Amino acid sequence: MSPISIKPWEISPWGVYSVWWRHFQVYRSTWLVNCLPPISEPIVYLVAFGYGLTPLVGDVTYLGQPLTYAEFIAPGMVAIGVLFQSFFEGAYSSFIRLNFQKTWQALLTAPLSFTEVFLGDWLWAATKGCIAGVLTGLVAIVARLYTWDYLLLSLPVIGLGSLLFGAFGLFTAGLVRKIDQINVPIFLVIIPMFTLCGTYFPRSTLPAGLQAIASVLPLAALIDLLRWPVALPPWWPLSLLWLFGCTVLMVWLAVRRIYPKLYT
Asked: Where is the chain membrane-spanning (predicted)?
């Protein structure tokens, strides 16, 4: 059945909010289960890598500043929470809503435009990334690896990273034809970012070529910005612009992939 929306690019804040609220109500019905991954993952990582490896690794030097290994990886765990939750919500959940549940098509039979449904889905994916980032930050605060004021001042960066990886997830949902194909960007992009972008070790320890590649990946810029309480690299304004640019690019690509699936 073809969607009924006659003005696909029309936008109203209420329309976007109604889509976001619909997803929130679904999330709230199983909130305890949904909160477990962003809480349990950083605890496991911080205990296993932070406290387990700190006695072996000792202090780490980051941009000339010495800090413990657990303090070094804590901002990286916040970035990982943002990456995983926003990307997987945008990729898997949006793919299911788009292709199996036909939620997008059903929403477009209401007085909602494509832009409102897209923005509602995108902002919900970003919201899940923000929830994961904040919960991970709270775990780091309890472990005395981060402070309240640092987390509050980092919220804009967490939000920007969530928007970026949520848009990347939506682009993936629009790009693939089968749900198993989502594994391709996970293994080619997400896992390399997860391991190489300075989460568990400074990128300066990598070979020059690999360090250059890792530094270009968006997660590297996000982690660098989240480590601002320790030190900021001199190119941090470019990192911020890079995250903005990647977000705009991913939104544009996602729209180009999803729109034809609904209107052709």
From this structure: 69-88, 122-143, 150-176, 182-201, 235-255
